[in-house]
Amino acid sequence: MAEELARLLRRIGLEKILELEERDPQYLAICKLCKAGIGEGEVARLAMLNALVSYRLTGRGEEHWGFFADYFARRRPSDICRAFSEYIAASPYLALNRRARLSRAAKACRYIPNIEDLRRAWDDLAGILGSDKNAKTIVFAIKILNYVYMCCRGVKRPLPKEVPIPVDYRVARLTSCMGLINAGPEEAMRRSEEVQRIWSRIAEESGVPPLHIDTLLWLAGRVILYGDRPYDIPPEFLAFVKRFCKS
């Protein structure tokens, strides 16, 4: 199964996935801030912070990122730390554990990520938060910082291949139903390191870095779990996933 999937991803190719990312709702949310006249550095800090608090949402991730973009595009904050704290208090998608989210954001809000050097940003964020480098929100933040680079500068850029996939429910569900791990989605979530190793091997064999595979899985999960439109996902990839995963 993994070998077949790696061959399919190799045929699709990284360039096609980079084009697809330009239609990812998260990418579009970040582009909205770039176009709103907020400086690149401020967009990077805001987007990074939003990635770091994007867990246990009280709604779909796409809606969460849309609210984030609308909120800051109207405000153009001068004090990122204060503005982001106010955003956490206002967002209906961050209603659970607001105090923990505020604490997490406070640790990182003064950090200015170097979007030229994502490997350094990866190390820095883990150190600032005292977290495992491969933790879901840490690696997700690196993906989002690459979106800032691509949106604000209007260029495509592959992500570092050593950064693993963030294991959220969609990734766990698809990994499980495709038979890549002998576990249900909830157990796959608990075995996130194993899930990451599975996708890192597939990435190595396919030549597509894990965080770019994440884009395909995230969008395919939306189609399969929520019956959403296909977002120009390569039809051969969607057909492959649908062979094993039902809505």
What's a concise summary of this model?
With 247 residues, the chain is mainly α.
Your description of this structure?
The chain is mainly α and 247 residues long. The mean pLDDT is 94. It contains 14 helices and no strands. Its EC number is 3.2.2.-, 4.2.99.18.
Helix and strand topology:
Elements: H1 2-12, H2 14-21, H3 25-35, H4 40-52, H5 61-75, H6 80-90, H7 98-108, H8 118-129, H9 136-153, H10 169-177, H11 185-190, H12 192-206, H13 210-226, H14 235-242
Keywords: Glycosidase, Hydrolase, Lyase
Protein name: N-glycosylase/DNA lyase
EC number: 3.2.2.-, 4.2.99.18
Q: Report the total helices.
A: 14
Number of separate structural domains: 2
Which band does the percent of strand residues land in? under 5%
CATH superfamily of the largest domain: Hypothetical protein, domain 2
CATH topology tier name of the largest domain: Endonuclease III, domain 1
CATH architecture of the largest domain: Orthogonal Bundle
Q: Give the quaternary arrangement of the chains.
A: single chain
Average pLDDT: 94
Which term fits the overall shape? globular
What is the CA–CA distance across the termini? 20 Å
